[in-house]
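Run log // design_07
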């Protein structure tokens, strides 16, 4: 048996092993129920200091376990990038040109601006001019995080990330060493410590490289986190700096001479995010307030000369963002207000927002309102969940956004034509030498007001939720998948698209003992949608246990899974034409074994070795094996 005989028998209405899976958590999932603490928790109280501030974490209302990943769960998914992890979420479509370091985009309901990312409350705005406004999903390195929560709204997905913190005066170190196919190597190192007077020092670094094709140069990436802080009682102050450098060689699809292959010019990029924060209280406590001043910089430079007109030499962009936020909690109710001030390219904008929520056992409600920013429309959103007799659950979300003209990237703001919501360009007094609609890019576009809806219902069978629902997205303007191949970022590739509706199905929870499932399917009612396959499914079957009968102290952990993904044809706008990525099926295997505080990890992607592409012209590898060890040390 997987559970000790003296353990309390789990009730049918309890999920003993939560989703998402955690393989290397220091507090064991099934040993925690028996009061057995892991090695990492056996510390004296006087070694713990007042925690540094953390950002507000809004409620995630889902049927079944919410999609909240702690530090251990992030790595247990096997994801190497944020786009890799987001591919597990219903309604999101990952569009990758290859393996690690490859140019990648993520679309929500076909909208490449449908994912927004917040790091400690600071929004990561699109700054790469080559990507032309699509969400900067991979500008956030996973190794710097301690928690990631994914909030699905009706018309957008918001990703809230909390950076890694330490609270113990016992020095903490960690080393990750991973290697695999395509000459892929990743090394990570961590150090964190709190000092007797409340001070904090944290450093983490990641170095990765890959060479998918031996005849082409390798690509590598480096990212760093540095934090200094001080906390005493309810007050805390910290300074954080993150930097990510990417040196990407020429990127091509993998295939023979008979296949149509595309290429992406080599690029060197650097993104830096730094902030100072002063905070009082904790967002999960009665009252809290924070003031943050942040600076963001992005630079991009082609590694070689290129005929690609979308590659601009020495493009550098800066933005300052100031955040004033606070809130309070009374019982199950919470409310918070935020003022976000952006200063960029000589312009200043202020965006207020408010959030209120009520969470009880049968009923939960989350309300969100936000003003207009240079990049996003004003929005009002309401999400509710009700659970009847613990066996029937309903979740609904409705969002209304206002129209207007918005910018695609942080840019100096030179006058350019606007791509209107009717599919035409505005007439501006610019000569052909300044703008040519067939070769240049419009930095501004118009959105019409729209209403979007999401509704799901599920029935609980023992510990398994079986459900289905509907998605409705209002008419919108779609930005192109710029930077994912030659010609794909031209201005005329922007499109207007009417409203669309999809049906969904899901299966989540515990099947039997330590065997769990997380599966979903989305089927759109139309066949002409861009950046969203008409049919898309993902199903992961996994086993997670600590084998307490054999290892009663909880010094062993096992997580193994098989994931199947299917998507039908995906359409891409390119110039005046439409390109298609042919549908595909993939099967992935993952194994994680923990012994004490060391985790051995192995994954095999594309077990069936199918030739497929998520972006036209970029055939993905037939197989990718990747393995290594993650090892935590204390003292």
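design_07 sequence
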């Amino acid at each position: 048996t997987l559970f000790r005989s003296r353990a309390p028998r789990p009730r049918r209405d309890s999920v003993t092993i939560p989703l998402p899976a955690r393989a290397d958590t220091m507090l064991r999932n099934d040993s925690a129920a028996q009061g057995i603490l892991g090695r990492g928790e056996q510390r004296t109280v006087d070694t713990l200091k007042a925690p540094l501030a953390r950002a507000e974490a809004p409620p995630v209302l889902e049927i079944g376990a919410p999609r909240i990943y702690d530090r251990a769960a992030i790595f247990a998914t096997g994801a190497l990038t944020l786009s890799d992890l987001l591919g597990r979420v219903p309604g999101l479509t990952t569009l990758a040109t290859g393996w690690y370091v490859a140019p990648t985009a993520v679309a929500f309901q076909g909208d490449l601006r449908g994912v927004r990312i917040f790091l400690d409350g600071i929004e990561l705005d699109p700054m790469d001019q080559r990507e032309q406004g699509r969400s900067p999903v991979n500008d956030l390195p996973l190794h710097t995080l301690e928690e990631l929560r994914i909030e699905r709204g009706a018309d957008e997905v918001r990703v809230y990330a909390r950076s890694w913190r330490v609270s113990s005066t016992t020095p903490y170190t960690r080393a990750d060493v991973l290697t695999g196919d395509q000459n892929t190597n990743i090394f990570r190192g961590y150090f964190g410590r709190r000092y007797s007077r409340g001070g904090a020092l944290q450093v983490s670094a990641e170095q990765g490289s890959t060479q998918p094709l031996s005849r082409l140069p390798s690509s590598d990436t480096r990212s760093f986190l540095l934090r200094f802080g001080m906390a005493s009682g309810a007050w805390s102050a910290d300074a954080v700096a993150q930097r990510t450098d990417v040196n990407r060689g020429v990127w091509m699809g993998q295939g023979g001479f008979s296949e149509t292959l595309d290429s992406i010019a080599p690029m060197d990029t650097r993104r830096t995010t730094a902030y100072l924060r002063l905070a009082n209280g904790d967002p999960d406590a009665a009252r809290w307030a924070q003031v943050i001043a942040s600076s963001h910089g992005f630079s991009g430079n082609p590694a070689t000369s290129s005929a690609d007109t979308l590659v601009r030499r020495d493009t550098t962009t800066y933005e300052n963002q100031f955040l004033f936020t606070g809130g309070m909690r009374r019982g199950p109710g919470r409310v918070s207000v935020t003022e976000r001030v952006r200063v960029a390219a000589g312009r200043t904008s202020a965006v207020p927002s408010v959030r209120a929520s009520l969470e009880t056992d049968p009923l939960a409600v989350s309300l969100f309102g936000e003003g207009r920013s240079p990049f996003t429309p004003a929005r009002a959103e309401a999400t509710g969940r009700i659970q009847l007799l613990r066996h029937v659950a309903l979740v609904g979300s409705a969002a209304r956004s206002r129209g207007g003209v918005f910018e695609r990237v942080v840019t100096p703001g030179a006058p350019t034509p606007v791509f209107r919501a009717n599919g035409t360009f505005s007439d501006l007094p610019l000569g052909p030498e300044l703008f040519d609609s067939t070769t240049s890019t419009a930095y501004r576009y118009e959105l019409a007001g729209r209403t979007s809806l999401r509704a799901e219902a599920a029935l609980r069978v023992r510990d398994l939720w079986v459900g289905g629902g509907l998605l409705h997205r209002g008419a919108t303007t779609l930005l192109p998948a710029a930077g994912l191949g030659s010609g794909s970022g031209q201005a005329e590739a922007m499109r207007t698209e009417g409203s669309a509706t999809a049906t969904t199905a899901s299966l989540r929870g515990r099947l039997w003992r330590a065997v769990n499932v997380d599966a979903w399917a989305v089927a759109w009612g139309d066949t002409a949608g861009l950046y969203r396959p008409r049919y898309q499914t993902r199903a992961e079957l996994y086993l997670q246990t600590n084998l307490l009968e054999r290892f009663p102290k909880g010094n062993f952990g096992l997580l193994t899974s098989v994931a199947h993904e299917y998507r039908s044809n995906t359409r891409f706008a390119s110039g005046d034409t439409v390109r298609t990525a042919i549908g595909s099926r993939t099967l992935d295997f993952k194994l994680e074994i923990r012994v004490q505080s060391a985790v051995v990890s192995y994954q095999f992607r594309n077990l069936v070795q199918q030739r497929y592409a998520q972006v036209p012209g970029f055939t993905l590898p037939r197989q990718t094996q990747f393995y290594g060890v993650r090892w935590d040390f204390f003292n």
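Confidence is low (pLDDT under 50) at residues 1-19, 23-46, 305-311, 429-439.
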